């Protein structure tokens, strides 16, 4: 591990001042991803600003929304009664990730900005455009069973590993940011980037920008939501494919629907095409299949991960079918 300075911030303003606008500093949440990457010298921050003591507050507002402090642990969010009642998809997504111990340590801010689990990114003896821009991508010809099928580029086929973010994308969550240039609010769906030819740039945050809170807006049918994660082991495994969905059905017709996919792209993938195909449709398997086909029409599989396209199709149909059945 490289030497670094360590500061513990007492509030958001002091955290931003301690980090400064230069790129050398990093915020430290629970450290469950960043510290691993520092041990491997893949991340080499000159300064760590510990923000794990900032707001952990989870505020269930009267209008049905919930505001979550970025330092709240993943466990605290998943177990909060308002989250379980208003947005079960979010509680289930978090509980589908990592282990109890890691969820106790991991923060909401850190979960959003966790980095890919591509094996080559962690292995310094291989070529990786994300770790070393311009060096190449050994995953394209190599072991890529876990990799992306949507929104990929020749430069990078990595996936975003978070389960929580898939649910937040489906719920139209807003990320509250504070930084050297001031405060702003950004839809979570616009925070992460597709790889293009700069896969090392994973999000749109400026140097020194801090995630202060995440807001989950009220959703009248949020209680009718579900998360399904398909993986190689029943626990402690990243998603091959996951689906977060919420469905509002009246008299057999779809009034509103939200769908996001995980394990398939460099960012949580909001399924806008499937949603558009389902608006006003009869809530049956044929409609769910047509919607899944519309969303996956541009998916591109490689030698080892092409199975994910069919897996995503079937998982979407199954989750939407389950929600429609519950609504009947
Ligand atoms: C064995 C193992 C299995 C796992 N399995 C899963 C899984 O199945 N599903 C899943 O979703 N996740 C899984 N994870 C990942 C886990 O969810 C993340 O490691 C965790 O959420 C990161 O949160 P953290 O607070 O520890 O982040 P940190 O490691 O502290 O930070 C991660 C990144 O976020 C930045 N950061 C932290 N807080 C802020 C902030 N407030 N503002 C701006 N930047 C910030 C840091 O600078 C760093 O770049 C697993 C991890 C491990 C080790
Ligand atoms: S897929 Fe992306 S992260 Fe993985 S080796 Fe290629 S460039 Fe690196």
From TrEMBL:
Residues 1-221 form the FAD-binding PCMH-type domain. It holds the Pfam family FAD_binding_5. Keywords: FAD, Flavoprotein. The keyword RNA-binding does not apply. GO terms for molecular function: FAD binding; oxidoreductase activity. Transmembrane segments: none annotated. Signal peptide: none annotated. It comes from the Bacteria. SUPFAM superfamilies: CO dehydrogenase flavoprotein C-terminal domain-like, FAD-binding/transporter-associated domain-like. Gene3D superfamilies: 3.30.465.10, CO dehydrogenase flavoprotein, C-terminal domain (3.30.390.50), Uridine Diphospho-n-acetylenolpyruvylglucosamine Reductase, domain 2 (3.30.43.10). This is Xanthine dehydrogenase family protein subunit M. It comes from Xylophilus rhododendri.
């Amino acid at each position: 591990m490289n030497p670094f300075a360590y500061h513990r911030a007492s509030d958001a303003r002091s955290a931003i001042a301690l980090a400064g606008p230069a790129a050398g500093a990093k915020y430290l949440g629970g450290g469950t991803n960043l510290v691993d990457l520092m041990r491997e010298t893949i991340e080499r921050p000159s300064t760590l600003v510990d923000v794990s003591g900032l707001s952990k507050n989870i505020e269930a507002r009267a209008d049905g929304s919930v505001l979550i402090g970025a330092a709240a642990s993943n466990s605290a969010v998943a177990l909060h009664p308002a989250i379980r009642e208003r947005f079960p998809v979010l509680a289930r997504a978090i509980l589908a990730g990592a282990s109890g111990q890691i969820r106790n340590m991991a923060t909401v801010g850190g979960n959003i900005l966790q980095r890919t689990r591509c094996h080559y990114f962690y292995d310094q003896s291989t070529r990786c455009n994300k770790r070393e821009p311009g060096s190449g991508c050994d995953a394209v010809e190599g072991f890529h069973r876990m990799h992306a099928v949507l929104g990929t580029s020749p430069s990078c086929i990595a996936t975003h590993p978070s389960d929580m973010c898939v649910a937040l994308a489906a719920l139209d969550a807003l990320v509250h940011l504070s930084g050297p240039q001031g405060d702003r609010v950004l839809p979570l769906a616009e925070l992460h980037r597709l790889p293009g030819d700069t896969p090392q740039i994973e999000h749109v945050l400026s140097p020194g920008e801090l995630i202060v809170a995440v807001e989950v807006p009220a959703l009248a049918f949020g209680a009718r939501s579900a998360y399904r994660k398909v993986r190689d082991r029943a626990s402690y495994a990243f998603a091959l494919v996951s689906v977060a969905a919420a469905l509002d059905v009246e008299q057999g017709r779809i009034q509103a629907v939200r769908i996001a996919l995980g394990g398939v792209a460099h960012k949580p993938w909001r399924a806008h095409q499937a949603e558009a195909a389902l608006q006003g449709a009869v809530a049956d398997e044929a409609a769910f299949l047509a919607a899944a086909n519309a969303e996956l029409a541009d998916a591109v599989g490689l030698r080892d991960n092409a199975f994910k396209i069919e897996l995503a199709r079937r998982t979407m149909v199954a989750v939407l079918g389950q929600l429609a059945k519950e609504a009947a």
